[in-house]
Give the backbone structure.
Amino acid sequence: MNITIPEFSLVVLVGPSGAGKSSFAREHFRPTEVISSDFCRGLVSDDENDQAATEDAFQVLHYIAAKRLARGKLIVIDATNVQPESRKSLLKLAREYHCLAIAIVFNLPNSICHERNRLRPNRNFGPHVVRNQAMQLRKSLRGLKDEGFHNVFILNTPEQVAAVEIERTRLWTNLRHEHGPFDIIGDVHGCFDELHELLQRLGYQITLSEDSMPSYQITHPEGRRVVFLGDLVDRGPKVPEVLHLVMDMVASSVAFCVPGNHDTKLLRKLNGRNVRLTHGLAETMAQLALQPPAFVERIKTFLESLISHYVLDDGKLVVAHAGMKETMQGRASRAVREFALYGETTGETDEFGLPIRYNWAAEYRGQAMVVYGHTPVPKLEWLNHTINIDTGCVFGGQLTALRYPEKELISVPAAATYSEPVRPLQPPEAQVSVLTAQQQHDDILDIEDVSGKRIISTRLQRQIIIREENAIAALEVMSRFAANPRDLSTAYHVA
Ligand SMILES: [Mn+2]
């Protein structure tokens, strides 16, 4: 049997004592990837078979598993895992770290397990132990997928176990091997003319073949490729044209595309789900009604294929519709997908009745640059290595591209205001700040950023270590004698 597991996953071996889980784990995984309950019993009690140490042993096992998952490392749990409760706590761990859980089940005849246990020293428990475990296992078999395992592999004979080949696959979000250069484009919302103009300004050559099935050929002389940040549809005048262009670009590997909340809502509608025709979806449906059914089918297939977010260029670049926190980057779970589509909201609404968005970017401390859209902004601003490039084209703003790695921003103005924003795009004059978002953010010192032992990576010196006592001393001096450099430059200009 060929077993494929994602490169980052929690692999749960399930089977009675004596089923051959440990030898299997030894054969197919690195020693550091496997944590066994027996080993943990030994760690806490000096006796791998001391059942009284089981609870402590599992606390150690969970602790180690959590540490590996936090670092994005695969882990294999070598324990019987025949009871639903034991699997439940492991599945909870997988969810917490946005990791896929895989079950490999050893459903072998009881006699084989019992015979193996009889031959092992210190395993002097009677046949009833294996019999009970096997019974619990068989009761669990059908429900494993519903419990939350992404994939379940069941091995029924020793021959099947011996013939297993394990293949590790890239996570769908993992495009670290794609190095660009990229042109990342924010929310298009059916603004085809502006998209066409933007692509031309970026140097793309666009031709539309007029065969029986018209298709776009798009090339860039320097081999650049586009990343669309989602929300291709709704509100704007030419949704089918935008979809046609983007789908042809993705199909010919000239573009990547992540989904936006409007795109997934359209997909639900096309799948016959009960969706309210609000926020521009009615316009999209009216435009699609004039298209041939085959084209609408193609849109469905395309939207279904979109992956929540991408990690590109050796992990240096992350793209997602509404942003991506560091702890979720390159991971897979429902929560990750929701974050990519909607971001985080505080649960409150503003004076326009719109949800107040939790500003994850203000707390972002990750190494990867995060480029996102979703919330129209009047001004393009970097904040903690993140940037929102949705400049509200459909609301009469601009359509913007970020050139990567150049970090150059190119915008084309909207030809019209296609939709009236509920919340004005430009904040009232009084609220316009002379400070950039980064300056406002940096105005408040986060004590977590400067206290304790710090290891700082720099471009010229590589790493500088600041010891805790030095950090305290520096804070002391700064708080007494230092002035904000911005105030100094003001004073200088005045003088
Ligand atoms: Mn959106």
About this structure: The chain is about 35% helix and 20% strand. The longest strand covers residues 100-106. The two ends are 79 Å apart (CA to CA).
